[in-house]
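Hello K.,

You asked for the raw outputs rather than the summary table, so here they are, unedited. I folded two proteins back to back in the same session to keep the settings identical. This is the first:
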Amino acid sequence: MKYLYQQLLAFGGLILLILLTLGISFTQFTRKTLEDNNYKELLGYAQSMEKNNLSLSRDIRFEGMSSNEIFKFAVNVTESSLTQQGVTFVFIDQDRKVQYPESEKSGKVSPHLVSDEQWKALKAGQQQKETSSKNVMGQSQTTSYAMVPFFTEGVFFGVLLVSQPAMNVETSVNSIVADLFKAFIIASIIAIIVSYFFATQQVKRINRMRSATKEVAAGNFDVVVPNRNRDEFDDLADDFNRMTVSLKESQDEIERQEERRKQFMADASHEMRTPLTTINGLLEGMQYNAIPENQREKAIKLMQNETSRLIRLVNENLDYEKIRTNQISILLQEFNATEAVATLLTQLSAKAEASGDQLILQTEEPIMVYADYDRFVQVMVNLIQNAIQFTKDGTIAVAITKLEKATEIKISDTGIGMSEDQVKNIWDRYYKADPSRKNTKYGESGLGLSIVQELVRLHNGTIEVSSELDKGTTFTVVFPDKPEAVEATEEQKEA
């Protein structure tokens, strides 16, 4: 069943159920109220008859009559005055025989008049009331009864039944039922209209969400579902909008990475094709003795260099994948970072001098760092070589600082610098800030900084970069201290 019809049934059914319940309750309340009013009137008639009986018994004109005769006379007088109201009196003696009216046959009273339970209650002095579907004659007619017990000197004398057709009850109830039925029909129509309105509004919002979902499925991540923050539908719309934003960002990132991958495949193919072509050409030359004997050693050296380039390119790719997938383990230990960096600068000084650069270690005192020694060296080598690659006749400075719970190392250069877009993308795999230099001696693959970032991540450290075009670049690497050392420092502060 469609959601629209479900809502119509839910809203409409609920409203109709409420109206039906209220209608029945009101009808029953009205009926009970009218019946209670009838009972009060009938009991009032009985009291009037009792007063008449008392008055006649004291009248000297009736001294020769028995109490039973006076009682019947009083009943007759009272009944005569109420003839127009349709009031009827029936007197039943202690033996459950009808004594009045005299035209009635004596004997047991018909069960529809006084039941056994009612008779027991009457003998106990309790008044009874009832609305029956039959009158005193046993005919089909809705009739109200009031039953009043009479006692003479404390002895049960009999029961006076006062009856009256309950036409006012049936007429009033039927009128109310007819009016309620009309109101029910009108209310049902209104309920259906209102339910349809609310249901269509909800269905519209659902269809809007469905349409937006189809748009997303078709690849359109710019779709936005209106949100007024009113109910759960709006909460769902808000979640949907956040999802589309996330999907768009993911899609953009996938496209960026795909472009990087395509660029890398092109670069890698070029990088590999060039040395392979060189090696193949040299081998063919040597095969057909096309290379002079005095040039053979130089050709072999060239083939070795090109082979080393290929091996380095493959190894960098393998290293990156191992690091990224946590397939390598690191051995953390404390060592002198100042000494390690000083050694690296000495080893890289020849490369720096070839570019006219000056390497400077700005820290002299020994500073300890908690890291894997080999991976620490790999990070520093990549960053320093990167600085040499993009600096010409400049300065490359390394500063080591001991922080409260970590060791900070800054590598600053006075090279060509980078734009904001370049800074944003340098951590991407295969990205090269200066494509024109992709064939230089130290920048073959574009994987160096990606490897650095992953290695720092394995140390639970951080790496940041700040750069300005034509002014230089600064890399800041932070290695956290050994956990035990951090805890000891905190305990000393507390003490």
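The second followed immediately with the same parameters:
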Amino acid sequence: MCGVIGIVSHGPVNQLLYDGLLCLQHRGQDAAGIMTADGAVFHMHKAKGMVLDIFRTRNMRDLLGAAGIGHTRYPTAGSAVSVHEAQPFYVNSPFGITLAHNGNLTNGEALKRELFNVDARHINTNSDSEVLLNVFALELERAAQGVKLTPEKIFTAVRGVHQRCRGAYAVLAMIAGYGLVAFRDPHGIRPLVFGRNDTMAGAEFAVASETVALDVLGFKFERDVAPGEALFIDFAGHLHTKQCADNPKLTPCIFEYVYLARPDSVIDGISVYEARIRLGSELALEVMKLPDWESIDVVVPIPDSSRPSALELAFKIGRPYREGFVKNRYVGRTFIMPGQAMRKKSVRQKLNPIASEFKGKTVLLVDDSIVRGTTSREIVQMAREAGAVKVFFASAAPPVIYPNVYGIDMPTPSELIAVGKTTEQIATEISADRVIYQTIDGMKRAIRAGNPAIEDFDASCFDGCYVTGDITPQFLKGLANSRDESRGEVVGADQ
């Protein structure tokens, strides 16, 4: 999960890209970068850290040009400790290309070997995004055939990328002297939207991971980029689009709606906020199946993403909704922090209970999901220390029992608390009196209600159905090993 944004304007875009990345900071907090195009010259600044810390006035002054792309990184493939993994990436042949990518390639390692042994292209990092950039560069070179690029030749190159690359990818790229290219994998797993702003100088375009970035920047939302579709916006502001995949089928990542995306975004026609409300309604049905559900005194959300679900759940079961935890907003999202020890420490730093909402009560805590259980265990303990008589814990998502391979850090079954355990065993492990999970059917029903035209979702971390059709047990084992190695000492400290 990363955030990407690209803009083609008639004036400087450095501030617009910066503001857009701030809106997408929730999608990645490891590193960020901006590349702008000033004519045929690229200007770049990228580093590890948060957007606010990376870009100073002196850096912004150097980002000249009326077009550019930006990226905020959440590492799942590659190294979380290396600044060289920050995006955008750049190659100088052919034409000069820079690229930012959200997602994971499932055949990245095979492509890396092929690029070196067959295509004589060198990959300098462990990032599959650099692999994708080199595949795109190679396909552009083949499509151009040594002459000037046209939109059709760019679309031919994207078609070549679709034929060679497997997995999830929402891509923004700039070609020096030509324009901005955006495309989405044939399954539409990772989100990508674009908007337009009509000015006196002509049309301006923005492409981003979520609609919230368009809203904040003043661009009118046009539509989602379709699965397999490519957009080319030349530096004069002319838009060209084409479907470049043979058999595209929209199967968006369901975890975007459960947790990842901002609630004020709309993804593939579905309001994230309204989807989370409906998740709460479905979860209420599961809560009321408990023989002792009427003993619940109060419903308390785990801030922030579970609030809509908890509010609707409380309404459905007829119990008060209370804010029982105060959140320190200067601590990052614990889910995306590397290492159990760091996550455990950060939970206590991030949340503090309001004792009056817990003392002497049976409390139903509502969270968006339970992944590793580290956060849940600490929260339950805090509720008990604050005086709760009983603690029920409800998850708006089903049990996470399979690794995610498309850009979300849910790596090994050994790290997923629900694998091989009953609900009662999970409750014991997180020290809760009861644990209530959403059903897979209830989750899909709640989210699909926002756009009935979507036939299915990528819900692989819940049901083990990988939509790209190329995931084997051997692949999952190799992925787990590579992620362990990329964590280095962080993993060792946690064992």
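The two ends are 25 Å apart (CA to CA).

Happy to rerun anything if the numbers look odd on your end.

Regards,
P.
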